[in-house]
Amino acid sequence: MFRLGCWCALVGLLSVRLTADTAQDIARIHVESIGGLARLERFESLRSSGTTHMAGQILDIQMWAERPNRVRIESEVARDVLVQAWDGEHEPWIQVGRSGEARPLAPLAAAQFRAEADFYDPLYRPEERGFTLDYAGEDRIGDQTVLKLLVTRNLTEEFLLHLAADTYFILRRDEMRQVGGQRIQTQTSFGDFRPVLGVIFPHRITVRSAEGVLYETVLDWTEGNPPIDPNIFAMPGRPETRQAASSK
After folding, report:
1. Is the residue at 35 inside a domain?
2. Residue 1: inside a domain, yes or no?
């Protein structure tokens, strides 16, 4: 009986070890499949342009991003511009209209914005960035076999990644998101994968809920390592922003 108990315990430990190794192996292969660690780490910034289809409207968008987590998104709405941005340090902010006053995003929306602002996907150096990976088995998306990884961060952020079993590209991310003032379960699908400076990026992103497609973003082009003024990520009117502008 003692030996049987030890054997069961050993099998349990090996299963945990195997799952952990499997998750890490999948993350490693994913990084290699999208371009490799060296190419990823040569990326400093990117700029993209395209359109977002939402609620029967087509919005022209531009996005600037700089590692580790600075991002600015401009959406043209009725010949005016909606800006959402984060400098990686202070509160994410929003500005409605070219002459509108910039203000911090509401707390829940700000938390969602920060969670999505990482320059790299969660499988790049996950442990160093606070992500825990657990292998969650195989599944099917249409006619494709996918590998599932449960990803957690700081015990507060949790989502499920689906990777294609043949390419190891991330095809879908399932999570709770802040949409329209409420948290709902969503599926974010990624497609139209293209290389940018040797690194594969998705150029079509579709977000769905149980009720259907919430919005879809289609990127026409993405430029790697463009020169970016870091001031574009800072909220207008902050003292440090004014000081940086006056010192130029």
Report:
1. yes
2. no
pLDDT at 239: 56
> End-to-end CA distance of the chain, in Å?
77
Contact 146, 164 (CB under 8 A): yes
Structure tokens at 24: 């890490």
Domain-embedded: residue 198: yes
**Which structure tokens are listed for 17?**
């070890």
Cα separation of 182 and 184, whole Å?
A: 6
Q: Read off the pLDDT of residues 29-41 as tens digits, 9 standing for 90 and up.
A: 999 999 999 999 9
**Residue-range definition of the domain harbouring residue 29:** 9-246
Better-scored residue on pLDDT, 69 or 7: 69
Q: Alpha-carbon distance 124 to 40, whole Å?
A: 9
Give CA–CA dist 154/97, Å, rounded: 36
**CB 216 within 8 Å of CB 52:** yes
pLDDT-above-70 percentage for the chain = 86
Determine, yes or no, domain membership for 3: no
pLDDT of residue 220: 97
| 225 has a pLDDT exceeding 50 | yes
Integer Cα distance of 104 and 107 in angstroms: 8
Contact present, 214 and 179 (Cβ < 8 Å): yes
Number of domains in the chain: 1
- pLDDT tens for residues 167-222? 999 999 999 886 766 788 999 999 999 999 999 999 999 999 998 999 999 999 99
At 117, give phi and psi (nearest 5°).
Answer: -90, -5
CATH code at position 187? 2.50.20.10
Q: Are 151 and 159 in contact (CB under 8 A)?
A: yes
Token pair for residue 238?
């902050």
